[in-house]
Amino acid sequence: MKLLAVRRLFRIQRVVIRYRLDDLLFALPLPWFLLAVRYVLPWRWFPRKQLELSRGARLRLALQDLGPIFIKFGQILSTRRDLLPEDIADELMLLQDRVPPFDSQQSMKLIEDQLGKKISEVFSRFDVEPLASASVAQVHAAQLKTGEEVVVKVIRPGLKPIIGQDLAWLFILARAAERFSADARLLHPVDVVADYEKTIYDELDLLREAANASQLKRNFEGSPLLYVPQVYWDWCRPKVLVMERIYGVQVTDLATLADQRTDMKMLAERGVEIFFTQVFRDSFFHADMHPGNIFVSTVNPWSPQYIAIDCGIVGSLTPEDQDYLARNLFAFFKRDYRRVAQLHIDSGWVPAETKLNEFEAAIRTVCEPIFEKPLKDISFGQVLMRLFQTARRFNMEVQPQLVLLQKTLLNIEGLGRQLYPDLDLWNTAQPFLERWMRERVSPKTLLGNLHSQMEQLPHLANMTRDLLERMSQPHAKDPAPPWQKRKDDWFLRLLGAAHLVGGVMLAIGGPLNQLGHWPAGIMVAVGVYLIVRR
């Protein structure tokens, strides 16, 4: 792997030289000591022929030549038109679904090898020319023998070695950053790269993508917000996926959406609602929501419905992360910056000795200007820079488990800016978040939590009994005398009563403090068991 990584480095260097990316870099306002580096680069010592390509085309072609990891980086950048010049953003958009396809005969052979059958035995029609091509796979249109119109997705061959080489260099850079930079250690670059490694390899397994699509479809079954195509499991394999073909307008085709009189304001608001529903209601969100994966149904343009494809990357949050994010966002919406600062300290994201007043003032300075403004008037680039400065000042740590969520937020924001620049992101999301917070302490939710806790009672009771018996007789080999048994019975009954009273008190105070009922349920269960059993 080390030899392959060295070869990959030379490959990256050749691409940089071929497309003159160093010219783009040194055209930026860099410090003098970085600009001086250009004089020691050997390939810049000789005259070079002028390229007849725009800077955006050079960057796009370079990322395209370097493979899937670089292509995905370009896809993320393409959604941030507020951070990129227009010509570069237009070129990077071509990376979303217009990557050059690989040989169709090779694709058909791989499909037949995976299915174990000839294409003519499975499909009554199969289009040799790809319908679309992306960084990891390409798609062919087809029709099953049973008549359903489908698309057949097949993984590009030979990806794993290239991905492994790129990841090797990313790990080297991440470890070097952690070793030599205190600021970098706060960002946990090694953990972030490790998380991305898992994500990119998961995306190469199309059975996982099929399972994700099926789950997402169930979550939004019958919803007017989002439609997910059906998966045909009989013809799905690790490198081949067959699913329903959808017909819609690509979300970035603003001209067509306008021609069919799509309600753009509702479309943008529903995009925000879909995101918050996935994150907080389902804890299962589509984490690759670049415009190439999102379409809009043509059925009801006055009540537009999204169509999502390519569920290879999904994210989920633990209940603790959900609760932390919800309370932080809720405090942000209320402009309760002291609460935000306190939550960061309580969660351990910043050191416990952080001065609350100073941290609160820093957060207020960053966040206050972005409220009550439409997206078109907000410079999120400046906001992010200010937040990074705040992070360095207070030693705030980045949580690797939230990287996918942050990436999805960037995509959603970039998409919302294109669809409806006057969208008030905060006022759109706040009612949903308030409703979710209320539902968390509703009788229905509490009853569901109690039911799940009751199912664990037998197991918890057995564990508690075994533990208490070992504690009461740690060295005993013979049966305890009667007087000792009576003493232990009274002790366990008193312990059970204490558990019962403590559990009831915690259950009463839990909703008020948003602590949940799981600890209370355990205490009540243990108390009842000890009293009845003994």
TrEMBL record:
Transmembrane segments: 24-41, 515-532
Enzyme Commission no: 2.7.-.-
Listed pathway(s): Cofactor biosynthesis; ubiquinone biosynthesis [regulation]
Gene Ontology MF terms: ATP binding; protein kinase activity
GO cellular component: plasma membrane
Pfam family, one: ABC1
Membrane topology: Multi-pass membrane protein
Source domain of life: Bacteria
Principal location listed in the UniProt entry: membrane
Record keywords: ATP-binding, Cell inner membrane, Cell membrane, Kinase, Membrane, Nucleotide-binding, Transferase, Transmembrane, Transmembrane helix, Ubiquinone, Ubiquinone biosynthesis
Record domain ABC1 atypical kinase-like: where: 95-343
Binding residues annotated for ATP, in chain numbering: 131-139, 153
Keyword Transmembrane helix applies: yes
InterPro entries in the cross-refs: ABC1_dom, Kinase-like_dom_sf, UbiB, UbiB_bact, UbiB_kinase
Record keyword Plastid present: no
GO terms of biological process kind: regulation of ubiquinone biosynthetic process; ubiquinone biosynthetic process
Cited function: Is probably a protein kinase regulator of UbiI activity which is involved in aerobic coenzyme Q (ubiquinone) biosynthesis.
Family the entry assigns: Belongs to the protein kinase superfamily. ADCK protein kinase family.
Protein name, UniProt field: Probable protein kinase UbiB
Record lineage: Bacteria, Pseudomonadati, Pseudomonadota, Gammaproteobacteria, Pseudomonadales
